[in-house]
User: Fold this.
Amino acid sequence: MVGGAAAAAALRASPAQGACGSHRSTAVGFHFGLAFGGPGWPVKLNYGITGRFGQDFAGYARLEGFGLGTLQWSAGGTSVFGDGGFAEVGIAGAIGHGAAGAGPHLGIGPGGRGGGLLLGGSYALIGDSTLSYVQLAPLLFPSEICFPSGRALRVGGGIVLPPVAAMQDGACADDLLASAWLDDARAELASVPAFLRLARELDAVGAPRELRRAALAAADDERFHAAAAFGMASRWRCSALLAAPLSAPPRFDRASLSALTRLAVEAWEDGCLGEGTAALCARRALRCVRDEQAARTLELVAPDEERHAQLSWQVLEWCWKAGGPRVRDAVVALSQASVAASPTADEDADWLRWNGRLTTAERSCARAEVEERAKARLSAAVAQV
Assistant:
């Protein structure tokens, strides 16, 4: 998936100022490269899987192999720093060739949260010291699971965002703005296959044709949103950006109570709340924005997201009628939980507002307001049933 070290080093997935809290992101990554040292051949294949828990400052756990004879686990902390680098430090334990060893692990390389080129090593201070290795391997996190605003692309139990590559290294004009717009761009791009899948699933459960048409139109809207947000991110990143496409096949092909419940729950979470929040944030950002390109982007996004939120209410209401009390009760139960507020941050509020962004506190306030209104509307709808 990585076309050599240069592409791996250019991979970017900027800090999620606009979409995710740094305490609420999990990513699964893979690496495949070369290792040097250890028993057997002096050069051998190195391959493994990494779980990362956090974003810029995160914990990690890794299971990897060296050739065919050694298996190693490691765990510790990792951090993205500067304009394009990461480092990790932890402890490692290895077994293989009838021996075992454990000791420190260190890694460093160019890249970011989306991946990079890992230059690392582990040294067995305890046990057999021959189980020590140096590794050189492209590391890629093809999906990040977090909680963006808007229609999320759900796969399994998580939310998927597309990996993004920066076409060149260089200093950002503004890290914060580049990160915020890139988070929006990734979320908008993931919404395209999410809406396409929604249209096919609505067709599968026999929903009205106008709902399916509206979902397809929303997918087209999200393409334009993603292009506009990528334009903003590229401008502040001072680099062209390349995003990997995502696809989402339908999860069911016929009507069932579980299918209707899933559609209703996602309409509530991703549409009534998520897209409702995205619309309100865009409207409020428009009040103070001074940057012309940002203003054009927000003017495009705000009315579309309002329309998408309304579509979600329509999907929710239809699923209620088709699925009956069990579908309705599932949504009502979900509505009792509140999304935790994002942590406060030290931000230049005026600079953000002039460039079409809200502060962390303003986004949290908008989310709380949308949630309060949505719960009131939901309660009124339940009372009328």
